[in-house]
Design a protein that fits this description.
- The chain has 47 helices and no strands.
- With 832 residues, the chain is mainly α.
- Helix 15 runs parallel beside helix 19 and helix 23 packs parallel to helix 26.
- The longest helix is centred in the C-terminal third of the chain and has 24 residues.
- The radius of gyration is 30 Å and the shape is globular.
- The termini are far apart.
Length: 832
């Protein structure tokens, strides 16, 4: 166990004390330099923790020491096991100190994250649940896991099973005595990994509806509505009354989200419809907090996940709920609110007008024929509001008008609307610029043919604004440019669009430093443009790839992984569209990306490998022995909340596709690894394809019908087939369990090349194990018959296998095949 040196301890204490209690600038620089030197030594973390936990030291100095320790740990240094043990033991003892509650809980959670698990911390909490810091640290860990959602799977490990059961039982007891932190911890666990709570959710519901309403009660009911709708439905009247009252409170966003969870349950919502509509309409009025969020100093808000809870506001979620109620219940919603909305639109104060515009726009998609007769009256009014002196009314008028785009492009109002958008883009206010760019995105997606005559002049204007816009407005302008590339890809495949479309974005790319988050959107925009222009801009590819590598390095060295993710996405597009590239700078970065705990980063790294392999890069062979085993951890799917399970499924999809492509391009390299790879992919396939699998939400839903979709399953099975190209014997021994699913999934394999290699590998595997067809031949034969435009060489191999099966079946062949409804097609196509 680590032991301190009194001299070093005194020096570190003095440095931290001088840093926080005030000295001159020269001394501050000296301190920063010395702390930077000391932080290179892993033992420095121990000294910082020792200072934090020493009562005799000034509390401000202690807390500053804790902050420094957390910052160092977040950089994920390589910490020796002895020092880790010291930190863990010291943290557990320090959880009893109320003076450093926030700091020690935050450090404990950070250590849990960087170690990717710390079962002893949960055991400590279970044994000392009545300590205030036990509940605090539990809440901080759960909150951090929700931020790094890819780590939620840690809680499903066997070593957490029993201790979580103990903690949950104790949390339920504390909740019954109205302990707010117990509610908070239970709610967080419901969001990130609800499975351990399933046996006790009914008891938790009883507690929630029996105690006085507060924020945690409402959050608990909402969390249960996501995890176990059946439990909420059994108590829906009580829950609805609580959430209806809560919707009018300051944190009414949670109430709106509760109703959204049941938006498909028309019969449940019908009795509350009118009350709901008037409540959400009242919630649409701007508050001071809403206006502050729109100010320029909050520009970074655009980069946050829009679905994240921290971005929820009562107004935003109310508008979403109104939109969905309108689409679910139709024109009756507009009829209920028509007079109220009209009164708002005709009011004297701009706040009422703006909320009326938002209400009208929210109801527009679902109101259909009910609103249509009024549009000739409403539309001129809306276009008039784009000239309003208040910028927020102008922005909302643009958004509301955009909701009627389908109607506008079929009328003479199109030109007037386009002029209004372009004029709004020229205004100085960022909020108006944002709304105008968003309106343009919708317009070009609905009416690209109508915009084509204006395209060149619009792009010239866009290129000017790229040098004038800032913050969210610049992001939205880049989104508009991406929309042009995506929607009009054929129309812009011309040399002139290099200067009109591509080069202005490249100029912005060159002006933007690597550490700016704007690079994320620039990567997305360049990906869209390159996909459209392709080889026309190939001369730029090598330099772009070099910059992508710099961004990947930033993402690997910092907590913000989006730099690496977006750069890998762009790198993949560049590789896909290039004829020749030097990948020597990129290839060494792929293995460390696969080592990251961030599943999204592993997902994009796996996709990039697939792009590289498909181009048969000569240098790639030097990295394969290192890369292939690092793809194995990606070959898993996780049953849990949809956002988490989707992450794992997509990473699994990309890793399997990459391994399948390696089997085709480099069969000798992967030959002796086919057995373990096939087993892992087949396990994932069976889990995704399993009907009525019990999922973490406790609803006994079909796991295969989530966001994983049949396409992911088809891609995994396609990869399985490709493995037969590397080792047909090893695959033949394992194919029986998924052959039926493979046959079913063939229709979802869209890429002709993927379908070709998957069947080719499978044919070779089946030739080694004809017995795999004993119970599945009819499905296999149907998949063969349905394979349109089968290449001649593949048809030859198929004929050979079917002839082999016919010989194996002997006299029973004709009798068995004659029962197939597609017998004649089989015979005509494969001569059997």
């Amino acid at each position: 166990m680590w032991q301190s040196d009194s001299g070093i301890l005194a020096e570190v204490t003095s440095l931290i004390s001088d840093a926080v209690l005030g000295t001159n600038n020269a001394r501050q620089q000296e301190i920063a330099s010395r702390i930077s030197q000391l932080s290179q030594n892993p033992e420095f973390s121990c000294y910082l923790l020792l200072i934090l936990t020493t009562d005799s030291i000034n509390l401000t100095v202690r807390l500053a020491s804790g902050h420094t320790l957390k910052s160092i740990l977040e950089k994920k240094p390589d910490i020796p096991i002895g020092i880790i043990q010291y930190l863990q033991n010291k943290i557990l003892h320090a959880l009893a100190d109320p003076q450093i509650s926030s700091a020690i809980c935050s450090i404990a959670s950070t250590l849990y994250i960087i170690l990717e698990g710390w079962p002893e911390l949960f055991s400590f909490v279970a044994a000392n649940i009545n300590l205030v810091n036990s509940l605090n640290v539990l809440c901080v860990v759960f909150e951090d896991i929700s931020t790094y959602s890819a780590l939620a799977y840690l809680l499903s490990r066997p070593e957490y099973s029993e201790v979580l059961k103990t903690i949950i039982i104790k949390l339920l007891e504390l909740a019954q005595s109205q302990n707010l932190l117990a509610f908070k911890a239970m709610n967080q666990l419901l969001k990130i990994m609800p499975t351990p709570l399933m046996p006790l959710v009914s008891k938790y519901m009883d507690v929630l509806i029996s105690v006085p309403v507060n924020d945690y009660i409402a959050e608990g009911i909402f969390a249960l509505s996501c995890a176990r709708k059946d439990v909420v439905k059994r108590n829906f009247k009580e829950c609805a009354e609580i959430m209806m009252r809560y919707m009018a409170s300051e944190k009414g966003a949670i109430g709106c989200n509760f109703w959204m969870e049941f938006i498909r349950e028309k019969d449940l919502l019908q009795p509350y419809l009118e009350q709901l509509l008037f409540t959400v309409l009242g919630n649409l009025k701007l508050t001071d907090e809403d206006i502050m969020q729109m100010m320029p100093e909050n520009e970074d808000f655009r980069f946050d996940k829009e679905e994240g809870e921290k971005n929820w506001s009562k107004r935003r979620e109310s508008a979403i709920l109104m939109d969905n109620l309108g689409q679910r219940f139709g024109g009756i919603c507009f009829l209920i609110l028509q007079n109220a909305i009209q009164n708002l639109l005709l009011a004297q104060d701009w706040v009422s007008i703006e909320s009326g515009l938002l209400g009208l726009g929210a109801l527009a998609p679902g109101s259909g024929d009910t609103l249509l007769p009024s549009l000739p009256i409403f539309l001129p009014f809306l276009l008039q509001q784009t000239q309003h002196p208040e910028k927020l009314v102008v922005a909302m008028a643009l958004w509301t008008t955009s909701r009627f785009t389908d109607y506008i492009i079929s009328t003479t109002a199109f030109q007037t609307y386009l002029d209004a958008i372009m004029k709004a883009m020229s205004l100085r206010e960022s909020i108006v610029q944002q709304a105008a760019c968003t309106s343009f995105c919708i317009l070009i997606s609905r009416g690209p043919e109508d915009l084509q005559p204006y395209l060149d002049s619009i792009l010239q204007i866009f290129s000017q604004y790229l040098g004038l816009y800032h913050g969210k407005a610049l992001i939205n302008l880049l989104d508009a440019i991406s929309s042009v590339s995506d929607v009009m890809s054929e129309a812009i495949q011309d040399q002139k669009y290099i200067s009109l479309l591509f080069e202005p974005v490249i100029e912005l790319w060159n002006r933007t430093s690597n550490g700016e988050r704007l690079m994320w959107t620039l990567c997305e925009t360049l990906s869209s443009i390159i996909l459209s222009l392709g080889s026309l801009v190939e001369s730029y590819f090598q330099n772009l790839l070099g910059r992508c590598c710099q961004l990947v390095e930033i993402g690997l060295s910092e907590a913000e992984k989006q730099f690496a993710i977006k750069a890998l996405e762009l790198a993949g597009v560049i590789i896909e569209n290039s004829s020749q590239l030097d990948l020597s700078q990129l290839l060494p970065l792929i293995p460390p990306c696969l080592d990251q705990s961030d599943v999204s980063l592993r997902q994009y790294a796996s996709a990039t490998i697939g792009d590289i392999v498909s181009k048969s890069s000569p240098n790639f062979e030097n990295y394969m022995e290192n890369i292939i085993p690092k793809l194995y951890p990606c070959l898993c799917v996780l049953e849990g909340p949809e956002d988490i399970s989707s992450l794992f499924s997509l990473a699994c999809n990309n890793a399997a596709c990459a391994l399948g492509e390696i089997a085709v391009q480099y069969p000798k390299v992967i030959e002796n690894k086919v057995q373990i790879i096939a087993d892992k992919i087949i396990e994932c396939v069976c889990k995704i394809a399993a009907p009525l699998a019990y999922n973490a939400q406790g609803n006994n839903q079909d796991f295969s019908k989530g966001t994983h979709l049949p396409q992911v399953r088809a891609n995994l099975l396609c990869a399985v087939g490709k493995l037969g190209m590397a080792n047909s014997s090893a695959l033949g021994q394992r194919i029986t369990s998924v052959l039926y699913i493979w046959c079913e999934a063939m229709e979802f394999t869209v890429d002709p090349r993927d379908k070709y290699w998957s069947l080719k590998g499978l044919l070779r595997a089946l030739a080694c194990n004809l017995g795999a067809l004993d119970n599945t031949f009819q499905y296999f034969a149907k998949a063969l018959v349905d394979y349109k435009d089968m290449p001649d060489d593949l048809r030859g191999e198929t004929c050979a296998l079917l002839a082999q099966v016919k010989g194996f079946a002997g006299e029973g062949w004709e009798k068995y095949v004659g029962l197939l409804p597609f017998r004649q097609e089989l015979q005509a196509k494969f001569q059997v």
